Amino acid sequence: MAGDCRHILPTLPAKSVDLIFADPPYNLQLKQELLRPDQSHVAGVDDAWDQIGTFTDYDAFTREWLGACRHVLKDTGTIWVCGSYHNIYRVGAILQDLGYWILNDITWIKTNPMPNFRGTRFCNAHETLLWASKTEKGRYTFNYRALKASNDDLQMRSDWHIPVCAGEERLKENGHKAHATQKPEALLHRIIRSCSQVNDLVLDPFFGTGTTGAVAARLRRRWIGIEQKPSYVRLAKQRIAQVVPPLLPDELTPPPLDAPRIKIPFGMLLECSLLVPGATLRLGRTEFEAQVQDDGTIVCNGIRGSIHRVAAQCLKKPSCNGWEHWHYRHAMTGEYLPLDTLRERVRLTKEAPSVKPPLMAAK
User: Fold this and answer.
1) Which of 7, 67, 243, 287 has its CB surrounded by the most CB atoms within 10 Å?
2) How far from the centroid of its chain's Cα atoms is residue 91's Cα?
């Protein structure tokens, strides 16, 4: 969408977006041009769109677009905001003032940063990303298990070592950078796969040359981009038109590792004929045995109720997970196996009636 996000966002449906990535103007407040030691010019960020004005002006601008983002963000969604020391602290305070709940701050460590040519400060080799949910108690998507699996079974940390956009990935016009602050696709790839699922809607209110849209399309997410500079809009359209999403039919795509688990009640094991009335369950390594009733309850030592309640009373505990404590007798081998294995078998089937014949026999 071409235009100012502060005007467009309020026109979008409320609570319609799953994930927002925002790379707003940093308002760098540069006072003079940057020169290398050989006196050649450094192509810094001196575009008009980055010159918001005073801190008061910038705070008002930030509050307006973050408030508009809150309008379109689902209660289960999250927002990412990228910034530097020039603006990120003001952005963080305003996020909290508006009711967002900051979940993490990510340090994007640039493996190929621009040097500090004047030698008057430390080389600025990182940027900060704030990740926030809409409210403190909001339930949000975080693909923890998938991230860990893709990171050699190590937890994904909050320090991300990713090079700045360069080489063939950097869009150019007439031999010059098309956009001064084009973000690397690797950064957006990690963000989008961290906090969204296939077919989720991703929004970028400062779309630039379309990095968010290109990565979202490649990851089979829907996307909305808002940008007011016509040349950026043109480049973004050209870029995204060349993206070819992977050909992965839905029926061949396994569910996400972090997808919510399907709730399977004990009675479904009887409905699927994985258990039969009269079958015996054994309570772990104890002497307690229970008989399965045709109404989905079990009876042990005169106690009748759910697998959880009966296990808790037998073990004299306030509560108990019956799926973990009760064991069923395998029809072929006669050995007792955890009851939870039958629940997992039901979960692996798309249709409960298609579950194969029982593995359970009455004692």
Assistant:
1) 67
2) 21
Crossing angle of helices 230-241 and 211-218, rounded to 10°: 20
Q: At what angle do helices 55-72 and 88-97 cross, to 10 degrees?
A: 50
Element (H, E) at 133: strand 126-133
* Cα gap 187→176, rounded to integer Å: 22
Work out the pLDDT band at 224, boundaries 50, 70, 90: very high
* Contact in structure between 322 and 343 (CB atoms under 8 Å): no
When pLDDT is averaged across residues 224-243 and rounded to a whole number, the result is 93
Distance CA 116, CA 122 (A): 7
Q: Does domain 5-252 have CATH number 3.60.21.10?
A: no
DSSP code per residue over 226-268? -B--HHHHHHHHHHHHT-------GGGSPPPTTSPPPP--THH
Q: Which two tokens stand for residue 45?
A: 């960020």
Tell me what the mean pLDDT of segment 344-362 comes to.
Answer: 50
Residue 92 CA, distance from chain mean position: 20
pLDDT tens for each residue of 139-179: 999 999 999 999 999 999 999 999 998 888 888 888 888 88
What are the tokens at 52? 């918001």
Q: For residues 141 and 88, is the Cβ–Cβ distance under 8 A? A: no
Where residue 186 falls (left for φ over 0; alpha for ψ -120 to 50; beta otherwise) is alpha
Dihedral sign, Cα of residue 134, residue 137, residue 143, residue 149: positive
Radius of gyration of the chain (CA): 28
Whose structure tokens read 């010019």? 41
β-strands 126-133, 101-109 pairing = antiparallel
Give the distance, in angstroms, between the CA of residue 75 and the centroid of all CA atoms in the same chain.
14
Q: Could you report how far apart the first and last alpha carbons of the chain are, in Å?
A: 67
Interatomic CA distance for residues 128 and 89, integer angstroms: 10
Backbone angle region of 73, left / alpha / beta, with phi > 0 → left and psi within -120 to 50 → alpha? beta
* List of residues 6+ apart from 28 with CB closer than 8 A: 44, 45, 50, 84, 86
CB 25 within 8 A of CB 50: yes
DSSP-assigned letter for residue 76: E
Domain range list for the chain: 5-252, 267-354
